[in-house]
Amino acid sequence: MLDLPVRDLFTATKNFEDLTPFLVPTGIIVRFDGPDVPVGWMPLDGRALLRADYPALSRVYPGSGTAFTIPTISGWIIKL
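Structure (tokenized):
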């Protein structure tokens, strides 16, 4: 268990954002239930992105040329 000092929600959120790059693999698909996409994450909406802007993500989701496409979850059914 990760023991982080938490004094308030802002501090807890900031600590999580600071640790996320070290704990979560690039390109992993994680379900998030909320109105906004968390900082540092992207919605799975099928958009095309430039390799130069997202080099680590472009290694996970191949494409051609200077761009790649992240997946879309349109039509997926999430079983709980």
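The mean pLDDT is 79. Residues 44-80 form one domain.
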